[in-house]
Amino acid sequence: MIALLVGAGVSMVFTLLLTPLFARAFRSLNLGQFVRADTPTAHVMKRGTPSMGGIVFITASIIGYFVGHLVARDSVSGAGLLVLAMMGGLGLIGFLDDFLKVKRQNSLGLAGWYKILGTVIVAIVFAVIALTYRDANNRSPASTAISFVRDLNFNFVKIFGLTAGVIIFVIWVVLITTSVSNAVNLTDGLDGLAAGSSIFAIGSYVIIGFWQSNQSCFSPTIDQDNLYKCYLVSRPLDLAVVAACIAGALVGFLWWNTSPAQIMMGDTGSFALGGALAGLAILTRTELLLVLIGGLFLVVTGQVIIQRIYFKLTKGKRIWRASPLHHHFEMKGWAEITIVVRFWVISGLFVALGVGIFYLEWVSR
Length: 365
Description:
The chain is mostly helical. The chain is built from 14 helices and two strands. Its EC number is 2.7.8.13.
């Protein structure tokens, strides 16, 4: 618990105090946001705003995590390090995309297929290590079963055999990682939108991880009469620490990222947050629950997919004025801050529903 509180506090103070320094450094290096000339006036005005702000909260999260453990004199876990590695790996892909945009001074960063390839490689490494690593209780951080609020009976290895089952599981992890990282990336279109929504989503895993730790099957204080309710998650409290550090870092970052933003998270940040969210869902065994916890991201992505399909089928017609969805409301004349706050509310409601279902499942057992 000490590691959680200290880690979150250190991460938040780091971004709250040091983000302006990073912003000035990025500006002096001409690492400013590129905005196309055909975008709305409100977005053209953001041209030159320091980008790649994801570097700040990725760094803050990692520092907070290790400082928290140092103060608490607690050991780090393979599960926690895996989530941070997933976050950093996808953040690196986003950084390359941001850097190329700035260097070329256009919106054509890293080619789409290269971004997908990079995401696939990071996800494969994550999946393999998550299956092969063993903690002190001889448990792997990941399970080959599909999970909702805990593992379901649908286990890839039991159904398809060891080799085929592991391969299918890796593909499953790649699918989740690619989907979530791109969903968060699509949502990052207005000042503070992705950061605020991610605080809700990633913050929910502080609650989930902490509860799983209290009800862990490996806890010496677990009630023997309630073993059917306990969780087999590897080091859930450390996953909660990671989530708290990321959420804390985002709170401090949001102070400077809210409208009018003094720094943008860029693809560096949005890809990193998607990776962290995917990693937390997989290792807490709540993969399908992510549909609710990341509900806002799902809605935004779904709108983009529907819009594109309809546009192609009708040869140029649109259902909405623009996509992603937040730009549709911009075109309708809504103020940016109004859109952002209302989307935060929607994100919070999705998260509350997801966490509520997580708890009700335990109560109902």
